[in-house]
Amino acid sequence: MPKKKPKILEQHIAAQSHFFQIESLHLEFSNGERRVYERLVGGQRGAVMIVPVTADRELLLVREYAVATDRYELSFPKGAIDAGEEPQQAANRELQEEIGFAAQKWHMLKEVTAAPSYFGGAMQIFVADELYPSRLLGDEPEPLVIETIAIDECLSLLERKEFSEARTIAALFMFKQWWQKTCK
Fold this sequence. Notes:
The protein starts with 6 loop residues before the first strand and ends with a helix. By secondary structure, it is α+β, with helices and mostly antiparallel strands. Strands 7-4-9-8 form a four-stranded mixed sheet. The protein has helices at 87-99, 166-182; strands at 7-16, 21-28, 34-41, 47-52, 58-66, 71-75, 78-80, 101-113, 122-133, 145-150. The protein folds into two domains: 7-41, no CATH class; 47-182, Nucleoside Triphosphate Pyrophosphohydrolase (Alpha-Beta Complex), CATH 3.90.79.10. It is elongated and about 60 Å long. The mean pLDDT is 91. InterPro entries: Nudix_hydrolase, NUDIX_hydrolase-like_dom_sf, NUDIX_hydrolase_CS, NUDIX_hydrolase_dom. It holds the Pfam family NUDIX.
């Protein structure tokens, strides 16, 4: 049986940047215990990640600089959902901005969160199939490098240091499971 959620006694912004706010919450649990928690509050619209599949049974990935790790990371295309966009629209836009393709077929794999104890942002992960060339101008500061890998070899990405982002790894496993069930 689910427990009763804690009661919020006080809530305020503890810090703020251009992208995030840190919110402080004073909570009282059903057993009377009180604690202060902090959480990151980001874009409320969420984000998308796309696993693009080519007609040649390859996956497309992007190599992009990640400031937090101070290195170039390899991941699937991803980005924020803009105001007024549905998640699939955002996915198609990000696909065009980051790798120069749009897709005719879409499959939603799952909505995931990263560190839900501290950050409530959700990301919807899609498979994009039946790709066709279409480019939109993105907001990246430099051109992204696109890499391909055969679906049959895609788990070898796990051996690469630059393939380390947890949501991308989760997307790879979810894709592989979906592919084995529906496309083989």
